Amino acid sequence: MSSKKSLVSITDYGKEDILRILHLAQKFDQNPNRRYLEGKVCATLFFEPSTRTRLSFETAINRLGGKVIGFSDAATTSSSKGETLKDTIAMVSNYADLIIMRHFLEGAARYASEISDVPIINAGDGANQHPTQTMLDLYSIYKTQGTLDNLTINIVGDLKYGRTVHSLIIGMSHFNPTFNFVAPDELKLPEIYKTFCDEHAIKYTEHSDFTEEVINQCDILYMTRVQRERFTDLMEYEKVKNVYILRKSMIAHSKQNMKILHPLPRVNEIQQDVDDSPKAYYFQQAKNGMYAREAVICDVLNINVE
Ligand code: CP
After folding, report:
1. Which pLDDT value is given to residue 242?
2. Sign of torsion over alpha carbons 99, 105, 111, 115
3. What residues does 182 pair with on adjacent strands?
4. What is 10-130+289-300's CATH topology?
5. Is the CB of 78 within 6 Å of ligand 1?
6. Is 233 exposed, middle or buried (0-12, 13-18, 19+ CB in 10 A)?
7. pLDDT averaged per 10 residues in sequence order, the chain, 306 residues
8. Is 229 a pocket residue for ligand 1 (Cβ < 6 Å)?
9. Res 1: pLDDT
């Protein structure tokens, strides 16, 4: 197996690594069209649906001058005939210089990284991790707040299954955040992440009511979707699916530079009239994903960006 660097979990990257990626993202934000991937082939293997992650990765590869192979629907591949993930990864690593993979099983990206001869970038594994989303979230926070340090971040919605939430807590842990976690009992943050906060002396509060009082405290309001696909009992989903809805009136007295982020897709949790507010940043956040992913790709491939 060749020496390679993968991005499987945000825990693979320390503070200096994160700052390096954000610095690269800033360069790609200034000029996204740089031909560093000329002659390289990148595979995007999406075993779960995606709009932003796959298309921003593929745009990033195109802007870097590389070629893309892959699939967006595993039903059209030989995994539908029973081919194992091990064999699929072994095959694709014969063809491509880099594999970007989204999979419904937690730990699938780590497993793939142990099999593959080429770097693996985790584009989301079940309810576990979504580290490139964290890179674009951190870049968006830095870009709007001018710092990552000492911010108050409200995380609202599905904190149980939300992989972007789990990665964000770990990614922000280097920067002395204060978290307000807002979730219904059914979707509360798993103990493991609260223990993580305790071990890293990270301040947090927990709320089941989504109030203006808690909104008014924060620099970043990170909304999330209740994910129907994670529920085995759809009756349980029906009970919580519209538990929190952000309305424009609720942000009237929020901090002047407060920004609303959301990994998207949204369903009902942010009303459409919020989109016009200068505090709504989720579409720009998704655009930042292209720059952050150009940065991550160059980093795992050890490409020196001028
Ligand atoms: N944020 C995110 O992962 O979006 P997609 O599911 O559309 O890729």
Report:
1. 86
2. negative
3. 156, 207
4. Rossmann fold (3.40.50)
5. no
6. exposed
7. 80 96 98 98 97 98 98 96 97 98 97 97 95 98 98 97 95 98 95 98 98 98 91 86 94 98 96 98 98 98 95
8. no
9. 40
* Of 52, 167, 283, 287, best ligand 1 pocket probe by most atoms within 8 Å of the beta carbon: 52
Kindly list the domain boundaries of the chain, sorted by start residue. 10-130+289-300, 132-286
User: What pLDDT, on a 0 to 100 scale, did the predictor assign at position 228?
Assistant: 85
**Does residue 122 contact residue 57 with C-beta atoms inside 8 Å?**
no
The pLDDT value given to residue 29: 98
User: How confident is the model at residue 287, as a pLDDT?
Assistant: 98
10-130+289-300 and 132-286 have identical folds: yes
Cβ-proximal residues to 177 (8 Å cutoff; 6+ apart), any chain: 150, 151, 152, 153, 202, 203
Q: Is 274 left (phi over 0), alpha (psi -120 to 50) or beta?
A: alpha
Assign a CATH topology to domain 132-286. Answer: Rossmann fold (3.40.50)
Residue of the CA atom closest to atom 1 of ligand 1: 263
Stated pTM of the model: 0.95
Distance (Å) from CA 164 to ligand 1 centroid = 10
Tokens of 40: 């390289």
Give dist(CA 39, CA 201) in Å, integer.
46
